[in-house]
Amino acid sequence: MAKILIPTPLRPYTDKQDAVDASGATVGELLADLTRRHAGLKPHLYNDQGKLRSFVNVYVNDEDIRYLQKEQTPVTAGDTVSIIPSVAGGAPTVASAEGAAESASDKALPALTNDEVKRYSRHLIMPEVGVEGQRKLKASKVLCIGAGGLGSPVAMYLAAAGVGTLGLVDFDVVDFSNLQRQILHGTPDVGRSKLASAKDRLEALNPNVEIVTHEVAISSENALKLFEPYDVIVDGTDNFPTRYLVNDACVLTGKPNAYGSIFRFEGQASVFATKEGPCYRCLYPEPPPPGLVPSCAEGGVLGVLPGIIGVIQATETVKLILGVGEPLIGRFLIFDALRMKFRELKLRKDPDCPVCGTHPTVTALIDYEQFCGVRPAAEATPLSTTIEITSVELKQRLDRGDRLKIVDVREPNEYQINRIPGSELIPLGDVPKRVNELNPDDEIVVHCKSGVRSAKAADFLRSVGFKRVLNLKGGILDWVDKVDPSQPKY
Amino acid sequence: MAADRRLIVTDDVEQAIRAHGQETYPHECCGALVGKNGIVTTVVALPNTTEEGPRRRFLVRPSDYRQAERRSAETGLELLGFYHSHPDHPARPSQYDLDHAWPTFAYIIVSVMNGAAGGMTVWYLKDDRSSFEEGSLDHGENSHSHSAQTVHRQTGRG
Question: HEC string of A61-117?
């Protein structure tokens, strides 16, 4: 028989006694006898697996059994056994800068295998990472939106670093024009799905990482569910509707957004949508008018640039998971590759932000295509979409001898790659000042690479009195596909 | 929710908890609630010894727990529960709070937003550990309390 001292919160289960007797030769046997006599104690002392709960401390006389022989610690008559609570708690961990680190640590951190210890040894010897940090990485789940330019370095470095679960969202196939920067994919992968190609590459890099592929177009319908299991979201998208969608979904689900974007020689990076920091909408409440900011497909991008920006996003993701350093929260990093300079802008959380402000007006995901003017609202169909010509129709009319003026509104270096015979080059930016070179009575066909810039040119020409302006649907890409496959595409 | 459990705190106690939360902001504070018959008359500020990041966690060491319990008994009072702060989070219990809660104890949570103490609530673990039940936190005049309202501090031990 030994005496067990009962702490205040458990006394209701021992008929209000602060000390009870139980028998057994070890602490384990003693506690088993105790819970037999006072069954109500059991769920508070033991977890579902029958193990002593971590915040239950058992002392034999004045020694913690963790430093003796745990539950095998022998007990003799006259010993006093005390059950002493550790009182612990804390704030919820979502939507905070430390959210990623903490939600990773909330899960029982997985152990590292011997192979993993070897693989991550350069991490393990740094005190800022160490075994604990590496286990946090292993427990963490990161979702990368896009497996292209930014997604390539992000996914490869995060997989190499030992992030346990890496989700990828993409629905595209690998194209030759991707290979200049999307290093996840190789020449033999052209024509394959980007996700299949990425999965092969990442599993070869680190078989310990679970690669989860989501072969869908991210949308307002699926985004919240998609984000749910993940700790950090990495935005590697290339268009405004998806960028706003990712931002808003991050705010609504309380997941930090490791943001990056690239265009030509310039890149940007930040960490958005943490609880204390600003979101993308604090910086840009409204998207630019459609067509004003060209995409990489239209404006080009230096192939190494996503390498730099993507690696910054991966670095921020790892820091968020480890909970170390100063994240790019409230800081907007701008990188200029030509001048090889970084600039940093301070960002503040906008209290009037429609999504993360004090009185948000956006509390559910909206129609982002419409918000960004990409797909206009039904009642406001602009003229340009109704007055189009297809490349096949254009070819037929040219063959027929119709008198058509073809105006190419791309940039000169694009004109060097391919062109429609007989076309005249007037880059979009020059159209207003060179408009007098065109005859308003002519029938004019405008085109660009895919039809976005030329739609703007067509709208402009009509606004200054041109009556017969047609926009080439699908641009020169469609022309090459359908009419003249001998020309290269870009 | 029908609050069938009720905790009375004196103004001094309430102010001491708020002041403690503001003092340790942005870290969590914690301490013991001491009193009798559902009336908290004294709070004992305790060091937050968590090793998991004090901005989102608190941990009371077993030795501090034991001392708080003993001291209560010596003065004829009871250990009624514990309080802690939620920096920049509402005064609602987290899953972590639930996972680590003890039965019968009152858990007071004070929200400290941007350094200023705000809402204060009290919670009790359900007997089946499935969730917390919110209790009603009532105010008692200091003159009605029957013990010294001193706030004992244990400092320099974390």
Answer: CCEEHHHCCHHHCECCCCCEEEEEECEEECCCCCCCCCHHHHHHHHCCCCCCCHHHH
Nearest-10 crossing angle of helices A151-161, A194-205: 30
**B100 in contact with chain A, both atoms CB, cutoff 8 A:** yes
Please indicate if any CB of chain A lies within 8 Å of the CB of B66. Answer: yes
Q: Which residues of A are catalytic?
A: 296, 448
Whether A91 and B93 lie within 8 Å, measured CB to CB: no
ipTM score: 0.82
Is the Cα dihedral A393, A395, A399, A404 positive or negative? positive
Residues in chain A: 490
Q: How many CB pairs under 8 A join A and B?
A: 112
The first and second tokens of residue A416, run together, are 């060097």
Q: b or e along A129-157 (b: 16 or more beta carbons within 10 Å of the residue's beta carbon)?
A: beeebbbbbbbbbbbbbbbbbbbbbbbbb
Question: Which of B52, B78, B101 lies at the smallest CB-CB distance from A105?
Answer: B52
Walk along chain A (490 residues) and give the pLDDT tens digit of each residue.
Answer: 889 999 999 999 999 899 999 999 999 999 999 999 999 999 899 987 788 888 888 999 888 898 888 889 999 888 899 999 888 888 775 434 444 554 444 446 889 999 999 999 999 999 889 999 999 999 999 999 999 999 999 999 999 999 999 999 999 999 999 999 999 999 999 999 999 999 999 999 999 999 999 999 999 999 999 999 999 999 999 888 899 999 999 999 999 999 999 988 999 999 999 988 999 999 888 887 766 666 767 778 999 999 999 999 999 999 999 999 899 999 999 999 999 999 998 888 888 899 998 888 898 998 888 888 765 544 334 444 458 899 999 999 999 988 999 999 999 888 989 999 999 999 998 898 898 889 888 899 999 999 888 988 998 888 888 888 999 999 999 999 999 999 998 8
Question: Is A285 near chain B, with CB under 8 Å?
Answer: no
| A43 interface with B at CB cutoff 8 Å | yes
**Cβ-based neighbour number of residue A326 at 10 Å:** 8
Q: B31 and chain A: CB distance < 8 Å anywhere?
A: no
Using the beta-carbon criterion (under 8 Å), do B56 and A91 form an inter-chain contact? Answer: yes
Cβ contact, residue pair B102, A276, below 8 Å: no
The answer to whether residues A168 and A147 touch, using CB atoms and an 8 Å cutoff, is: yes
Distance from C-alpha of A316 to C-alpha of A322, rounded to nearest angstrom = 10
Which residues of chain A from 333 to 372 reach within 8 Å of chain B, CB to CB?
none
Residue of A nearest to B57 (CA): A90
Cβ pair A467, A442 in contact under 8 A? no
Of B60, B96, B103, the CB nearest to A9: B103
Tell me how far apart the alpha carbons of residues B29 and B26 are, in angstroms, rounded to a whole number.
Answer: 9
Q: Is B37 helix (H, G, I), strand (E, B) or coil?
A: coil
| Nearest residue in A to B32, CA atom | A87
Kindly state the tokens that stand for A382.
Answer: 């602009």
Inter-residue contact A484 to A171 (CB < 8 Å): no
Is B16 buried (19+), middle (13-18) or exposed (0-12) by CB count in 10 A?
Answer: buried
Question: What is the spatial distance between Cα A91 and Cα B111, in angstroms, rounded to a whole number?
Answer: 9
